[in-house]
Amino acid sequence: MKNTTHLNTKILTKNSLYALLSSRFSQEEKKLSDIPSPALLQDASHAAKRIAHAINNKEKITLVGDYDVDGVSSTAIMVDFFRQIPYPLEAIIPNRFKDGYGVSPTVLERVDADLVITVDNGIAAVAASKICKERGIDFIITDHHTPGDILPHATYIVDPKLSTCTYPFKEICGAQVAWLLLGLVKKELHLSINMKQFLDILAIAIIADIMPLIDINRTLVREGLKVLMTSNRPSSIIIRDFLNKSVITSEDIAFQIAPRINSAGRLEDASIALDFYTAKDTHAAFKQFELLGQLNNLRKETEAECTKEALTCGDANADVIVVSGEGWHEGVVGIVAARLVEHFGRPAIVLSIENGFAKGSARSIGEVSIYELIKANDSYLSKFGGHKMAAGLGLKEENIDAFREAINKTASKLDKEDFIPKESISGTLQTEDIDLELLSLLEQFEPYGEANLRPTFLVENAEVVNIKLMGADKSHSRIEIRQNPHERKTLELIAFRTVYTMPHDRKITCSYTVAKNEFNNKVSAQLLVNKIY
Ligand SMILES: [Mn+2]
Fold it and tell me: How far is the centre of ligand 1, averaged over its atoms, from the C-alpha of 144 (Å)?
């Protein structure tokens, strides 16, 4: 028997669960009208005036976005807004393979504009800002990433993470910054565009960029999912047809929609995803969505292959796993890093080497800031950027070994406790409490996601009654258990992507979440295995 004494086995009733979830939210629920004024974003009013001026004077405006979900969503909201003005807007999303990340000298080579605006990138675009200055192009940066030591020379920078910006809620994604700015542009131009219509796309961006679902983010996601359910936007119609549910949750977006939108930029070009979002009819949107589905399947295969190789190179004793490989697909190294974190329980950096240069992605765990670890060793790097939990970096192949050694030396000074993710098990549910009433209780605290995790429950030493494998390739398990001895009612646990075999003692200890399952118009509570101990 494994040591599971650290697990929370407290028995929860519906009342105590309700109290537990309520305690996550100290303040009252915010309304859309509680969103702090966009004018509080430093320089947003100036930037909006400059954009309005450009429109009034028929200047050429070029937008530069990013290839992840947040970046494509930001771009799509801008494109749709400008279409409704109407005013021509050239939108460029850099190609990960040809251009690399963000507005760069390479991207500017094909830009001929009076005004360049960035969304979800730009805070590190020092080189691009110099070129704009030389060429007499005005440059407005809108971003939400943490600024480095040197700020680009831009006309205006709108970024809540600027130390001088006093926007009351700073944990917002790139699409939110863009949307807030457009609210000011709308006022400048006295337009009658309803800003709420963009909340379907905005909610997807907030969820996919793993923003904390608290405060106004919670409000925006909740309202955004409602807009997604009713919107006439062709992409939203396709999304709800695809999900085919009476209520769409943040998790449906996180697990089913975001990976599809992301796969375009990861494997080919984000314009496929942008064309999906901005399709003018459902036929066109459907075609793009099919393409995204195919790319997502390809992404899964590529990721599985690369993970297999990366796992064999990882040093299980290291504090930070740093692995590299020739020909590893750049578009999946981030997901592979996440898989290594799961496997080793350590922060992981996965590098793809091409022509003597390594580009890669880092993912962290627990309280460890991978960004700070990387920054402390930036002398080995040619570029880096990111957040506490995820970062990107580039370095010469010859520096990899020294960098690995150095970052491990830095990490060895950290508190070992920081590497342990906080146990998030809420307690144990009684078998008879797992019913439709429990589902509606849980629904009251949606949307779940970052900073408001869907509650996880424990079954401890439950008797395994039966195991069935499901799915076309029999890769999922349906585990029937009896939670307590002699209990008549059994429970069914679903373990996705797990082939579970009968344990010798016929007992299982695992954590699970409860989700709503809709099948043939029948609603039931589905127990999804989170982790088997
Ligand atoms: Mn972003």
Answer: 7
Q: What is the mean pLDDT of residues 188-203?
A: 98
**475 CA to middle of ligand 1, Å?**
33
In sequence order, the 6+-apart residues with CB closer than 8 A to the CB of 19 are none
Ligand 1 center from residue 159 Cα (angstroms)? 11
Distance 135 CA to ligand 1 centre (A): 28
Q: Got the DSSP string for 390-405?
A: EEEEEEEGGGHHHHHH
CA nearest neighbour of 40 among 148, 167, 153: 167
Amino acid letter, residue 386: G
Closest CA to 381 of 165, 124, 187: 124
Overall average pLDDT of the 86-101 stretch: 95
Compute the distance from residue 305 Cα to the ligand 1 centre, in Å: 27
Distance 464 CA to ligand 1 centre (A): 43
Name the residue with tokens 């003692």. Answer: 505
DSSP letter string, 426-477: EEEE-GGG-SHHHHHHHHTTPPPBTTBPPPEEEEEEEEEEEEEEETTTT-EE
Question: What residues are paired with 385 via a beta bridge?
Answer: 392
Q: What is the pLDDT of residues 438-462, one digit of tens each?
A: 999 999 999 999 889 999 999 999 9
Q: Please, what's the b/e burial string for 349-358 (b: 16 or more CB within 10 A of its CB; e: otherwise)?
A: bbbbbeeeeb
Predicted local confidence at residue 433, as pLDDT: 95
- Sheet with 321-326: strands ordered across: 321-326, 348-354, 357-363, 390-396, 383-386
6 pLDDT higher than 80: no
How far away, in angstroms, is 67 Cα from ligand 1 center? Answer: 10
- What is the 174 CA–ligand 1 centroid distance (Å)? 5
Q: How far is the CA of 460 from the centre of ligand 1 (A)?
A: 39
Burial of 395 (0-12, 13-18, 19+ CB in 10 A): buried
What is the token pair recorded at 12? Answer: 């929860």
335 C-alpha to ligand 1 centroid (Å): 16
- Cα(70) to ligand 1 centroid in Å equals 5
Could you tell me which residues come within 8 angstroms of residue 31 by beta carbon, excluding any fewer than 6 positions away?
A: 219
Percentage with pLDDT > 90 across the chain: 89
Distance (Å, whole) CA 340 – CA 187: 48
Q: How far apart are the first and last CA of the chain?
A: 9
